[in-house]
Design goal:
InterPro entries: GH. By secondary structure, this protein is α/β, with parallel strands linked by helices. The protein folds into two domains: 228 residues, Glycosidases (TIM Barrel), CATH 3.20.20; 98 residues, Immunoglobulin-like (Sandwich), CATH 2.60.40.1180. It contains 14 helices and 19 strands. The strands form five sheets. It has a six-stranded parallel sheet. The protein has a six-stranded antiparallel sheet with strand order 11-13-14-19-16-17. A three-stranded antiparallel sheet has the order 12-15-18. Helix 6 links the parallel strand 7 and strand 8. Helix 3 runs parallel beside helix 5, helix 7 packs antiparallel against helix 8 and helix 11 runs parallel beside helix 12. The N and C termini lie far apart (66 Å).
């Protein structure tokens, strides 16, 4: 049942048990025929303690006999030398790994040559814990053992070298500690948006709207998610209705959307990635139908290449503060408009939503709720004066396709 850790890499090649390189080429071709690109995983911080990389020198962080004696959980001996286990500065070492030295010229070249080979057979990589390799973090973690800080950042050097040969190859960073912007500047095409995940999990509508006020260019390069291999299953972490509302939000925002295996089926058991077998779970058919429909109505390329903006929700009645729980935003491109409205709270909410991007005039407008199929007609003068009236139950949502009514 224990098949090994995907973070403890012996060597970057395609195992013959899953078809070898020929099998991967065939899979990629079949995906391409369906207009799907293939991303693979890459672990930059460490490899396994028995990795073929250990046959080469100057790739790893080395320690001393004293380190081994005083910190046996962080160091190990190999071929009469002492090496550090890979680690996050906030935790003890991962004892099945050896720490790569991000400051070493040899390790950077090894990383580049490995990624160049990987890039021949896929369309991008998701880089595990990418922030660990930045100069500042690596120096903080390893101090003098890492040596002198290079003039160039690890990722700047690596990404530029790979994209020189494969310009459309995608780099996606698993990143935490509010370092998303920094890694975007170092060349990553997308970065995990853990901040949004935390606010959807434990925050309120105000904190989410504050997060969504960020610059659009920054938001376009974020990966939105409500579940991944590290976190609790969404159907466990979120109350049922909040799960639906959060899914609507992450699937309609700028950026990339990450859907974890089993998320759409409502699986609740979080599996350690080292296991090769799982406990049987019943599929949540209602959630699966919801996701299947949601995937059909999320903004496509025609809108994602256009503009996006938050829309302000205004009060309807004196002393009714429920409007503050409304999260609303608009995609638009030419005459295509897509409005998302979500009540991110556990009680009824009402608001007038200002859609300032529409040139209302006096004609009528049609709002088609793509979730329910219901159609609403509104007069342009009233929309311009008051905004769109919405009344949503707890965790309820709309995705409107907006059209001018033909005269």
């Amino acid at each position: 049942d224990v098949v090994g850790s995907p973070y403890s890499i012996y060597y970057y090649h395609v195992d013959k048990h899953i078809g070898g390189i020929e099998g991967l080429i065939e899979v990629r071709q079949q995906l391409s025929e369906r207009e799907i690109r293939l991303l693979l995983d890459y672990v930059p911080n460490h490899v396994s303690i028995d990795s073929l990389w250990t046959l080469e020198s100057n790739l790893f962080i080395e320690g001393t006999i004293d380190d081994l004696m005083n910190y046996p959980e962080d160091y190990f001996s190999l071929s009469e030398r002492v090496y550090a286990h890979g680690r996050d500065p906030n935790f003890k070492g991962w004892t099945d790994t050896i720490q790569i030295n991000a400051f070493s010229k040899e390790s950077r070249q090894k990383t580049i040559s490995t990624l160049l080979k990987i890039a021949e057979h896929c369309d991008g990589v998701r880089c595990d814990m990418a922030m660990l390799m930045t100069n500042a973090v690596f120096k903080n973690t390893w101090g003098q053992k890492a040596g002198s800080i290079p003039d160039e950042e690890f990722w700047v050097e690596v990404i530029q070298a790979v994209k020189k040969k494969f310009p459309y190859f995608l780099f996606i960073a698993e990143v935490y500690w509010d370092m998303e912007w920094e890694l975007q500047q170092q060349g990553f095409d997308y970065c995990y948006d853990k901040r949004l995940y935390d606010r959807l999990s434990h925050g309120d509508s105000q904190s989410i709207k504050a997060h969504l006020n960020a610059d659009l260019d920054y938001q376009r390069k974020l990966v939105r998610f409500i579940e991944n291999h590290d976190e609790l299953r969404a159907s466990t972490n979120f109350e049922e209705s909040r799960n639906y509302a959060s899914a609507i939000i992450v699937m309609t925002l700028p950026g990339a959307r990450l859907i974890h295996e089993g998320q759409m089926k409502g699986y609740k058991i979080k599996l350690p990635v080292q296991l090769g077998r799982r406990q049987f779970e019943e599929e949540n058919q209602d959630l699966l139908k919801f996701y299947s429909h949601l995937l059909q109505i999320i903004p496509g390329k025609d809108l994602e290449n256009g503009d996006w903006s938050l829309c302000k929700a205004n009060s309807i009645e004196f002393e009714d503060e429920s409007f503050t729980n409304i999260i609303s935003y608009l995609w638009w491109s030419d005459d295509i408009y897509r409005l998302t409205v979500v009540n991110f709270s556990s009680s009824l909410a009402k608001a007038h939503v200002a859609i300032n991007q529409l040139n209302y005039g006096s004609r009528d407008w049609i709002f088609i709720d793509l979730i329910t199929g219901k159609i609403y007609n509104y007069n342009g003068v009233n929309l311009d004066k008051f905004g769109l009236y919405v009344k949503l139950p707890a965790w309820g949502g709309h995705i409107f396709d907006i059209k001018k009514k033909k005269i």
